[in-house]
Amino acid sequence: MKAFRIIPILFMVLMLVNCKPIQKTAVGMLTNNQWELESLKGNSTLAELFPSGLPFLNFEEAGKLSGFGGCNNFSGIYSLEGKDLKLDPGAVTQRACLAEGENQFLEAIQQVKSFKGDSEKITLSGEAGELMSFVPKNQ
């Protein structure tokens, strides 16, 4: 009779153990690169929007997010559950910016609901579809 009680517990433990590598793989993929903006809301001509340099994201292991918005630096948090991703840019430096790109970028970051990708490219999407895509900065 005790064996029948142990089997469901072992099954649950195996399920939980098997889920962790998937999560670690997604986190590892995000954290092993500095991600540079490739497109924003379908626009891949970004030089006019970001004359001071292209925005980038740094995902850190402990759920910390940092990056550059095209004019200002930011430091915030992210949460990742499977492919569900939420980004909060948090504190943003306050330099005066002439271009409109940074505001569009920071607004898009806050709309992110999910991601897909691999080590070559990630795509961040919201409820209405693709918001932006990134490639590793050193490529």
From TrEMBL:
Entry annotated with the keyword Calcium: no
Domain DUF306, residue spans: 30-134
Superkingdom, taxonomy of origin: Bacteria
Keyword match Nucleotidyltransferase: no
InterPro entries: DUF306_Meta_HslJ (IPR005184), HslJ-like_sf (IPR038670), Hsp_HslJ-like (IPR053147)
UniProt keywords, alphabetically: Stress response
PANTHER family: HEAT SHOCK PROTEIN HSLJ (PTHR35535)
Record-given protein name: Heat shock protein HslJ
